[in-house]
Amino acid sequence: MNFDLTDDQRAIQRTARDFLAARYRSEELRRLAADARGFSDEQWDEIVGLGWPGLAVPEDDGGLGLGIVELVVLQEELGYALAPTPFLSHAGAALLLAAAGDEAQRERWLAPLAGGARRGTFAIHDEAAAWGAEWNALEAVDGRLSGTLVLVPDGASADTIVIAAPGLRCYVVARDAPGLGVSPMAGLDPTRKLARLDLDGVEIEQLARSGADVQRARDAIAVAYAAESVGVAQRALELAVAYAKDRHQFGRPIGVNQAVSHRCAQMLLEVEGARSATYYAAWALDHEPQTAGLAASMAKAYASDAGWRVTASALQVHGGVGFTWEHDLHFFLKRAKANAHAFGDARWHRARVADLAGI
Predict the structure, then answer these.
(1) Average pLDDT, stretch 344-357?
(2) Is residue 68 packed enough to be buried (19+ CB in 10 Å), middle (13-18) or exposed (0-12)?
């Protein structure tokens, strides 16, 4: 096994770091957080120009044909920049369509997503959402769907919505389908927009395949969330260390105090542990499917907890300034907490780990 990134993967990493740093500075982050859509068409067109929408889509379906490791590399950088972009929801929809659609369905629904001509998102309607069974209620009758889906990421701006249902089945709904109502929902993280979908006899298309391929796609989405949390935690760690070096009390940096330095060391430990678990899960999804489900849930559970703990510790290192609206740290704290609950929280994934391990 190669324990380091390849040259191509490092090129993706460098390109993403430079691109995102130039476009999502503090003032732009705040502007987009206050915007109803949360991103601009110009920014999306630039992302399309880089080929990111089709990164993990097979070449036969119009994508780049890369793997989950490459997706994780990119997703970590998006988390590091805290980029307000619908990329993750779009990539999740593409993964589900690639896994569940037959050739005709992939040509109709997936190819436009891979090329970036249309934007996609996904909605969860089962226990994998941790809140799905309690908050969501759907009924399918004769190819039509009625009910409600909540907390759909970027649901108001997506053209294609993939619904992941119990039994590893998937349905596709067009954004302009008659009977579909979309309304924004307030969320903890202002940089990621959420929506409520109200369906009243909306025409749906059930994707042809279910089973192991769909489960792999769902695990890949969970690992993508974990990778984003790793990027968020890495940035929070760097902000805390920089502040601990620059902030002086009694004539010396606060970082020389054990209460601060030990906290920063613990943050580093958690970031590296979450990164290792996430990249192993991504590798398993690409090369070792028999362990991928276990590895994916381990990564999501660990990164969910680590992302929150690291950003909360960074807040403590910053002291009073970290609690102010003017400082960017609160955005990272909110993204980490929101990601911890998205697509299965740590408790749900730990229970799945126990189940898969036969405990």
Answers:
(1) 94
(2) buried
- DSSP-derived letter for residue 175 is T
Paired sense of beta strands 160-165 and 120-124, if any: parallel
Instruction: Report the alpha-carbon distance of residue 291 to residue 130 in Å, rounded.
Output: 22
**CA dihedral for 116, 73, 351, 359, sign (positive or negative):** positive
Beta bridge partners of 146: 139
Least confident of 51-65, 163-177, 276-290: 163-177
Pick from 54-58, 126-130, 146-150: least confident = 126-130
Q: Where are the domains of the chain?
A: 212-356
- Phi/psi of residue 328, nearest 5 degrees: -75, -15
CB 55 within 8 A of CB 71: yes
Per the rule left: phi > 0, alpha: psi between -120 and 50, beta: everything else, 308 is: alpha
Nearest to 162 by CA among 330, 153, 14, 350: 153
**CATH 1.20.140.10 matches 212-356:** yes
Closest CA to 168 of 124, 221, 107: 124
Across 270-302, b (16+ Cβ under 10 Å) vs e yields bbeebbebbbbbbbbbbeeeebbbbbbbbbbbb
Task: Name the pairing type of β-strands 169-174 and 120-124.
Answer: unpaired
pLDDT for residue 127: 59
65: left (phi over 0), alpha (psi -120 to 50) or beta: left
What SS3 state is found at 183? strand
Cα–Cα distance for residue pair 184/179, rounded to 1 Å: 17
Please state the rounded mean pLDDT for residues 187-205: 93
CA distance 349 to 117: 34
